[in-house]
Amino acid sequence: MTKRTYVLVLLAGSVLAGCDMAPRYVQPQLPVPPASPAGPAYAADPAGETALPADTAWADFFRDARLQQVIGTALANNRDLRVALARVEQARAQYRVQRADIFPTLGADGSATYQKSPLATGGTAGAGAGRSDIYSASVGVSAWEIDLFGRVRNLSKAGQEQFFAARANRDAAQTALVAEVATAWLTMAADQDRLRIARETAAAYEQTVGLTEARFAAGIASELDVRQARTSRDQARSDIAAGTTLVAQDRNALNLLAGTTLDAAVLPETLGEQGVTLDNLPADLPSDVLLRRPDVIAAEHQLKAANANIGAARAAFFPKISLTAAFGTLSSGLSGLFGAGSDFWSVAPSASLPIFDFGRNAGNLGYAKATRDAMVAQYERAVQSAFREVADGLARRGTIEEQIAAQTSLRDNARVAYSLSEARFKAGVDPFLTTLDSQRSFYAAQQSLLAVRLVREANAVELYRALGGGLK
Asked: Can you give the pTM of this predicted structure?
């Protein structure tokens, strides 16, 4: 066989490898309504331009410069994100290994054999009777599978889809990290405000205790009034201790997410009344925007990989053809190794066909199909979960401003009621218990308003993540 014939054999094997046993991939229909839900809890699209979160960079969505710096630090140092990136590289390397099986592996081989036998009649000149020396050099292919039925190519495609899934999972980890950092930062801001309110309230209670004790000493107030005033003061002191702990734990949580110790200059001091996020997220959305979420993309790549594995399992029922071939030179003397007439070739095709495997191939095919069915369900579950998260976020967004307005009015009314009751108590019109109740109501109203403001900010962050934001 000449070199040209040898090359033609390899090309013929490549041409024959055109059959694909994998079922044609069809993307499952979205198992959710075609649009986001509507009703009393859902607000209409806000006036003005809106942008999809997937098209809005996180540095534009989060407007506070300190929060932007913390998120940037986390993206550079978070260890979970590094693990996700390493898994992408693992999947890429595995895909390269699997893809290499499609092509023949060329190898070069050189050998020298020295042998002396009393039965030999000849020998190498000058080497003694019965001595034989053989030198050879060759280039060839060893056990290359000619992929007639697509087994190797489907395994390679499955590896590629697993790589794509790992990359999408890494993107999902980034969007989750951005949201977690922002939520933790906002939580610390709210806890700072909660601690400040507790300290202000404790100071007010301290004044009330002093006034009540003075009135008790003068015989105007009762010991019950004194004990009640001290009870409220001690509760505020307990809230200060708990709030101090929460702020410290919030900082620890941010340091863990950021992967390093954050400078105090980038930590929040107050939540404030103005939001730290853009208020331009759309309300009325088609469901197909969920297909841009990284976790949904990853689920679909897993489904495609399972579909390709079915093709590989089906191909196992058909003959497996492999080729081993070599072309080189052979000589009894080293000087004549590449001389005229020293070339040789060998071709050893082989084929194997399973006849009785006791159900092994059928079991592998059944497993591949069941895995594909599970991946379909997992993909549909990912879409349904995404739809639920977006719907929940939109429902909260549609009512939160009304709730904040009500809580603000409640706080303001509680403040006025406290001031009036305190004045009436000092004038001897109302009992001390009325003043104390008003003071407690005002404290609770402040805390409730702060909690609702945190819910509004955290919901904006969650909606941004649920709609695929945080990658840019």
From this structure: 0.81
